[in-house]
Design goal:
Largest sheet: 8 strands, mixed
Oligomer: single chain
Distance between the termini: 41 Å
Keywords: Transferase
InterPro entries: Acyl_CoA_acyltransferase, GNAT_dom
Bound molecules: coenzyme A
GO molecular function: acyltransferase activity, transferring groups other than amino-acyl groups
Protein name: Acetyltransferase (GNAT) family protein
Strand content: 25-35%
């Protein structure tokens, strides 16, 4: 029998870090520790059914401090409602990110752009991965949805300094517009038949012309075409959630993220 939706997502959240990290269980929390390269992971409620306590949070923070990684916790509020209080009482500010699942067919926006999902076998793939990382870095340096000046010239300055690290669990997309080249990007990460869309970013100079939505649509359709049964994502804010809703995603909960340096 298929798992209920939130259990399905929780199972994904537990599975995906295990692809390139080891899991340490500390009571109601599981801390994922990466030995190789890449962003350090967070701790989540132990799957299934972990109910983290204040003591668990304290123990994991100490462990994160010892490991030299940021103190970071992530969970779904509807699955583990008690965790919010515990984490806030430990002094964290918690980002409440709308959690959305694709509900029905993908709605592809009409845009004046070439949107493609990268083929890992194609020539130039690693160069394109470097492009993805470059655009993501510049986009996330300008949070929110407003347009701005950062654009292709900044991208071309940064690109040669970026090392293209390809992680096999990812699929990447790029959107290119006439005369400016690639300006928007995003990725999916997959575990089993669930895929999460992450890292959607548009250079500030190219925002508000449908590219964020077009990238999301291309990645979601690519996941479905490759046998994924569930596509989901979390949005950095309510206004960003609107971009995804236009593609066919529907709000199902709140993903909580707490982090200190
Ligand atoms: C969030 C982000 C990816 C959106 O990218 P984008 O390419 O501007 O997205 P879209 O163009 O599809 O949608 C943005 C807005 O433009 C509007 N829009 C889309 N096409 C348009 C057009 N042709 N003309 C005018 N407005 C348009 C959309 O309706 C939306 O408006 P809204 O804010 O009122 O809902 C981008 O702002 C970004 O990179 N932010 C920083 C990184 C980030 O937070 N990423 C998301 C992580 S969850």
């Amino acid at each position: 029998m298929p798992l209920p939706l939130l259990a399905e997502l929780e199972s994904f959240y537990d599975a995906v870090p295990r692809l390139d990290a080891r899991a340490e269980v500390h009571g109601g929390l599981t801390l994922f520790v990466r030995d190789g390269e890449g962003f350090p992971y967070y701790a989540r409620p132990t799957f299934p059914g972990g109910e983290p306590t204040a003591v668990d949070v304290r123990v994991v923070r100490e462990r994160q401090r010892d490991l030299g990684v940021s103190q970071a916790f992530e969970w779904v509020h509807e699955t583990t409602p008690g965790m919010l209080d515990v984490v806030e009482q430990a002094g964290f500010t918690v980002l409440r990110a709308p959690l959305l699942v694709l509900d029905g067919p993908v709605r592809v926006p009409e845009v004046d752009a070439r949107v493609r999902v990268l083929d890992p076998e194609a020539p130039g793939f690693l160069h394109d991965v470097a492009m993805v990382r470059t655009i993501a870095q510049l986009s996330f340096s300008a949070p929110g949805t407003a347009t701005g000046e950062t654009g292709p010239r900044d991208r071309d300055t940064l690109l040669p300094t970026v090392t293209p690290v390809h992680v096999p669990k990812f699929r990447y997309a790029l959107a290119e517009i006439p005369d400016h080249g690639p300006v928007a990007t995003g990725m999916t990460q997959r575990a089993g038949d669930v895929a999460e869309v992450v890292g959607v970013g548009t250079l500030p100079s190219a925002r508000r012309r449908g590219l964020g939505a077009a990238i999301t649509a291309a990645l979601a359709q690519d996941a479905l075409d490759n046998g994924v049964a569930r596509v989901f994502l979390s949005a950095g804010s309510e206004e960003i959630a609107r971009v995804y809703e236009r593609v066919g995603f529907r709000r199902v909960g709140t993903a909580c993220i707490a982090e200190t340096e």
